[in-house]
């Protein structure tokens, strides 16, 4: 593998998320702080899931392949549930933090809305999730070694990059839908986020049959993206205005904070 593979896969995996960060978050210090905090919450959830899984492996029969596979599935499910638990905990924390900011602010409206917090925290979750998903894979992409020398798929790195990109964007969409569901007490929307997260995570067990995991994942991603778009106050009209550069940053700046 060459450096071109490394930089190409990095661009695919993180390009859209980095672009969103630069154009919608980087210039706002408050948004950057909440994004970093969201990434930290995701990291803590991973730490707890890893600790439980490590203990489970140590007390299990390491010579039993079926038991180890069961523990792997258990670890994935536990990790997803902990991530969504910490997403809810972060929502509750942000609600209190926003109320405090409103009390300190001289303005009558909150300095950052719940919709903006949902987007920013979701992207923070996504960045950290993507980093842990693909950083070791990218490190291996520069060699030594040759992918597929024993008959395996030649598209391992490329598939991993596309899966990472989908996971990052999904976390952003999940954040918008999850926060809106909590805010309006639409628990079916919250349940849909948790279930779709479980489905996407379990789809990775289809690898190395990458089509079987990537295609359903991208279908879920586009579905969640459309849902999050309308949840955030989007419409076909302002999408057209955005694409024609007549409505700058419409999802983040042109709605009233609540």
Automatic annotation (TrEMBL):
Which branch of life, at top level? Eukaryota
Q: What is its main location?
A: membrane
Q: Where in the cell is it found?
A: Membrane
The answer to keyword Transcription regulation applying to this record is no
Keywords linked to the UniProt accession:
Membrane, Notch signaling pathway, Transmembrane, Transmembrane helix
How does the UniProt record describe the way this protein sits in the membrane? Multi-pass membrane protein
InterPro entries noted in UniProt: Aph-1
Enumerate the Pfam families for this protein: Aph-1
Which parts pass through the membrane? Answer: 6-25, 32-59, 71-90, 117-139, 159-179, 186-206, 212-230
Q: What does this protein do?
A: Potential subunit of the gamma-secretase complex, an endoprotease complex that catalyzes the intramembrane cleavage of integral proteins such as Notch receptors.
Subunit details: Component of the gamma-secretase complex.
Hey, which family's this protein in?
A: Belongs to the APH-1 family.
Q: Any idea what this protein is called?
A: Gamma-secretase subunit APH-1
Q: Which species does this protein come from?
A: Ataeniobius toweri
Q: What is the lineage of its organism?
A: Eukaryota, Metazoa, Chordata, Craniata, Vertebrata
- Give the gene name: APH1B
